[in-house]
Every structure is written in C-alpha cells, then in structure tokens.
Amino acid sequence: MSGAREQLASEKASAGEALSPLFTIACLLLLQAVYIDIEDMLGGRQAKAFEKDIIQVFKNGSFPQTDSPKAVKELLTADPLNNLQIPPWQEAHLNKLLQDMHGLGHAYLGNNSFTAATEVLEDMEAGDRAQFLAWLNQSNLGKLWETA
Predict the structure, then answer these.
(1) Which residues are CB-contacts of 32 (< 8 A; sequence separation ≥ 6)?
(2) What is the pTM of this model?
(3) Where are the chain's structural domains?
(4) Distance (Å, rounded) from C-alpha 122 to C-alpha 131?
(5) Is the Cα torsion angle 95, 99, 104, 105 positive or negative in sign?
(6) Do 72 and 51 meet the contact criterion of CB atoms below 8 Å apart?
(7) What is the spatial distance between Cα 40 and Cα 37, in angstroms, rounded to a whole number?
(8) How many CB atoms lie within 10 A of CB 36?
(9) pLDDT tens-digit profile of 51-88?
(10) Are 124 and 29 in contact (CB under 8 A)?
(11) 137: Cβ–Cβ under 8 A, 6 or more apart, which residues?
C-alpha cells in the first residue's frame, strides 16, 4: 500500500492545484460498488448493460483512459487502492460520473438503496476518506450519495 500512497503523493504534488487522485479512487470504489450491487441483485445480463451505459457516460464526458471496453472493464473490476493505474480525471469528470452513476443506479435498481455504497469507502485511509467526503458534501452530489 505504501507504494500506491507514494505514487499518489507524487502525482498530487506534480499536479499542483489539480484534484487529488484520491478523489478518483473514491469515485471508482463507488462505481464498483454500484456495479456489484447490480450484478448481485439483477444478474450478469443487467451488469453487462450497466457496463455499456457506463462506457457511454465515459464517451460522452470525454474521460481519459476509457477508450476501450477492456479499459472500462478494468475500472469496474480492478482494485483502485492497489492494482489499478488511476486515470487523470478532473473534477468535472468526477462530478459527471457521480451524477450519471446515481441516475443509472436508480434506473437499474428502482430506488436509492445503492447510495449506501459509500460504505465501500471504509477501505480508504480515514484521512483520505474524510477529505473526499468533505469535497462531496460541498456539492449537491453529497445529498444524492447520502454521505452525511
């Protein structure tokens, strides 16, 4: 884990005022939790449909490093805390992902129960998690994702 932390600190320092990669990691954890909920509750066919919908979100939002189905599958399945090259997404990308992911989760699951997926953030270090949740709660997205 220390290697990943060092990489993130290095990227954060070189990015200057850019949004911390830790925020992207948190968003990927949430994305994976919603994907797993859909797969567990609705089955593989619906999970595949969700994957196609997320590919479209990435395409519409011009997200870096999401140009192939294989790259998106890796984002949906690889551990962003340990085994994943973190994409250089900006704040606008993260806002779009969180908003569109909420809409898709509601459309697939028929309710907002998936927003409790923020529990998956418990895998992050406490300070990193608190920093992400503070950022999230500064926007309307915090209300969508039940982070209070």
Answers:
(1) 76, 77, 80, 120
(2) 0.83
(3) 2-12+19-144
(4) 13
(5) positive
(6) yes
(7) 5
(8) 16
(9) 999 999 999 999 999 999 999 999 999 999 987 789 99
(10) yes
(11) 147, 148
